[in-house]
Amino acid sequence: MSEQRNLRLMRRTLDAFSSGDMATLARIFSKDVVWRVPGKSFLAKDYQGHEAVFGFFGHMMQLTGGTFRVESLDMLANETRGVFVDRLTAERNGRRLDVRLLLHVVIRDDQIVEGIDHFHPEHAWDAFWA
């Protein structure tokens, strides 16, 4: 797959996530997709498969009263991988989240098969969910 094709897939992914289009995400993510969330919060773990990954996304939306937002700052891709550079914001229990996310994805056969979150600063991500 070409770099440009992967960038188009990544843009579709961000658009679908931002609009809550789970049907499109279900086509973009492989059925056995793995999503890795680092840190020390109760959300930190590896999620596997559509049910677990979409459950994770939904749980974040629920816990933030729908305020969780992703602002795309940049995207980079090669033939098998991509990196989203995003700003994440949300509100919860009187706290405000404002961190950078580097999301590293592995792409195979026109689908995302793995997502690895890297938050900066990670301690702010953990504190927000505490």
Detailed description of the structure:
This protein has a single domain, classed as Nuclear Transport Factor 2, Chain: A (Roll), CATH 3.10.450. A hairpin with a 3-residue loop joins strand 3 and strand 4. With 130 residues, the chain is of the alpha+beta class. 18% of the residues are buried. It starts with a helix and ends with a helix. The chain has a 6-stranded mixed beta sheet. It has 4 helices and 6 strands, in the order H-H-E-E-H-E-E-E-E-H. The radius of gyration is 14 Å and the shape is globular. The mean pLDDT is 96.
Architecture blueprint of SSEs:
Layout: H1 3-19, H2 22-28, E1 29-37, E2 45-48, H3 49-63, E3 69-77, E4 81-92, E5 95-108, E6 111-120, H4 122-129
Parallel strand pairs: 1-6
Antiparallel strand pairs: 1-2, 3-4, 4-5, 5-6
Helix pairs in contact: 1-2
Number of strands: 6
- Any guess at the CATH architecture? Roll
Q: What is the rounded distance between the termini?
A: 40 Å
Rg from Cα: 14 Å
State the domain count.
1
Major sheet: arrangement of strands: 2-1-6-5-4-3
Principal-axis shape equals globular
Taken in chain order, the helices and strands follow as: HHEEHEEEEH
CATH topology: Nuclear Transport Factor 2, Chain: A
Number of helices: 4
Helix content: 25-40%
What is the mean pLDDT? 96
Largest sheet: 6 strands, mixed
CATH class: Alpha Beta
Which structural category fits the helices and strands?
Answer: alpha+beta
